[in-house]
Amino acid sequence: MTFSIFVEVSLRPGIADPEGATIERALPALGFTGVNGVRSGKAFRFEVSAQTAEEAHAVGQSIADRLLSNPVIEQSIVRVEVAA
């Protein structure tokens, strides 16, 4: 069975996010007020062949931890869906 994997990678809480801070500072100049706590990140999508959703999640989490993120300063969230 084929599963779609979505991985969201972001900096861990407490790690400085200069890109997010720059975006947050620019928002009022574009007319967006009242926006706070902007954090930047990365997103990845790919497909995995696996027997179960749990197996696909394990593969996605392993890829996220070993290749897509730096586990020391980043955290990853993995979502799994059955591919259309």
Word description of this protein:
- With 84 residues, the chain is α+β, with helices and mostly antiparallel strands.
- It has one domain: Mth169, Chain: A.
- The protein has 2 helices and 3 strands; from the N terminus they run E-H-E-H-E.
- Strands 2-1-3 form a 3-stranded antiparallel beta sheet, with helices on one face.
- The longest helix is centred in the C-terminal third of the chain and has 16 residues, at 53-68.
- The radius of gyration is 16 Å and the shape is elongated.
- The mean pLDDT is 97.
CATH level 1 class label: Alpha Beta
The largest beta-sheet arranges its strands as 2-1-3
Shape: elongated
Low-pLDDT stretches? none
Report Rg: 16 Å
Distance between the termini: 11 Å
CATH superfamily: Phosphoribosylformylglycinamidine synthase subunit PurS
Number-wise, the strands total 3
* Helical proportion, percent range: 25-40%
Q: Which series of helices and strands comes N to C?
A: EHEHE
CATH topology: Mth169, Chain: A
**What proportion of the residues form beta strands (DSSP E)?**
25-35%
- Overall CATH architecture: 2-Layer Sandwich
Summed over residues and divided by their number, the pLDDT gives a mean of 97
Give the count of structural domains: 1
Number of helices: 2
Major sheet characteristics: 3 strands, antiparallel
SS-derived structural category: alpha+beta
